[in-house]
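Researcher: Please predict.
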Amino acid sequence: MVKIIEVRVRKYKFNENTHRIEMKKFIKKEIEGCKKFFVSKSYSFNYGIYAFSKNQISIDIEKKRVLSNTHQQALINFSLNDKDMVLMQRGISLIHIWTIKESYSKFYNKGLNMDFKKINISWLKDDLFNVKHPDFDQIKAKILTTTDTIISISSNEECLIKFETLKGVI
């Protein structure tokens, strides 16, 4: 039997001209009441997001966009391996792969200090993936795709997501 954990996610869309420092202050204030929970947060352009759960989780958000050739090449050089190329042939985009890998590295508090090329992703079903680095345990990643963002949530177990989109008040 699969254990399912509850994760609450709040995504904010800020004004285009809102400075990242202001976004971080706003979300920091929002999560003050989450002291009894595991909390993870992420930012991309004018989007800020946080997730909280009683179980360890991590989250990453990326704004959907067309990547320049330079940006694509940088992501490929920094993060892709042969298995990722197979995923891309099956329709998983470069940004989806990046988002899964970034939320995985955040789960282990490594950020960009983890070797992303060594992170292997296996597609389980629909929006659920197994993710594994040789030096760390395998965990699950769930992808949420909205009209304007791609979100990855990593956890030890399959997630039941309660998702809210809110407008940033800055």
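Model: The longest strand covers residues 4-13.
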